[in-house]
Write a structure and sequence with these properties.
elongated; single chain
Length: 230
């Protein structure tokens, strides 16, 4: 009976919960980037606004606002990259020395198997590591975008201006995709903390995380604002 309360390192139910989490993470990420044509996601709607930004950028003088915008985007990715790195360090420290947390878990009658705890924390670290890599790449792409924006001629009649602006827009969109993927990994890293309470909790937090992402991309107030026409 005690073995049922104190879960082993990994059992069938844990494997099912883990598979569901990874499946939801991959499926939702794909669905957000490839939504039905009749109901585009917020991420897809923003792609058109980014293209429109660069079309307006060509004729805007001076371009101080655009420089401030791209700098703000880079600062945002840098912040999330730094936060992910700090969180990864904390997760690795817990994996290496789980004693304090396991002592607290024992007082709360939660699973206290050391190997099982390390596996559960490892899932969080994996999501955070993926987020870190996505944020780093997004930061670099926003840097490339800023260079291409600087290469746009000041004369809007120059045939190169629109071409360079279109290039900048596509780089901006690619950077935003990487940034959004990093955010999705952060969401699932938080959701995977439920595994510390057991596989049923992981299933619950995974479904909750998935529903939050779907609602924000397909049923949020911000989406309705973006869909409004003039």
């Amino acid at each position: 009976m005690q073995s049922l309360i104190l879960l082993g390192p990994f059992d069938t139910l844990d494997a099912t919960a883990l598979a569901l989490t990874l499946l939801c993470w991959l499926a939702i990420g794909w669905f957000i980037e490839h939504p039905p044509a009749a109901r585009p996601s917020v991420s897809l709607l923003m792609q058109e606004y980014r293209r429109e930004w660069m079309r307006q950028f060509v004729t805007r003088q001076p371009r101080i606002f655009d420089a401030a915008m791209i700098d703000s985007l880079r600062q945002g990715t840098a912040f999330f990259a730094s936060a992910s790195m700090i969180a990864i360090g904390g997760g690795i420290a817990l994996i290496g020395n789980p004693g304090m947390v396991l002592g607290l878990a024992k007082d709360l009658t939660l699973p206290t198997d050391a190997t099982g705890f390390q596996l559960r924390v490892l899932l969080v670290v994996v999501f955070l590591a993926n987020a870190l890599l996505k944020f780093i790449w997004a930061h670099r792409l926003f840097g490339y975008c800023s260079i291409l924006m600087a290469a746009v001629p000041n004369d809007p009649e120059d045939p190169v201006a629109s071409f360079r602006a279109a290039q900048s827009a596509e780089l901006n969109i690619t950077a935003a995709k990487s940034f959004n993927r990093g955010l999705h990994s952060i969401y699932f890293a938080l959701g995977s903390l439920g595994w510390l309470l057991g596989p049923y909790a992981l299933i619950g937090t995974t479904l909750l995380t998935s529903s939050v992402l779907i609602r924000r991309e397909f049923a949020s107030t911000s989406r309705e604002v973006m869909r409004r026409s003039v």
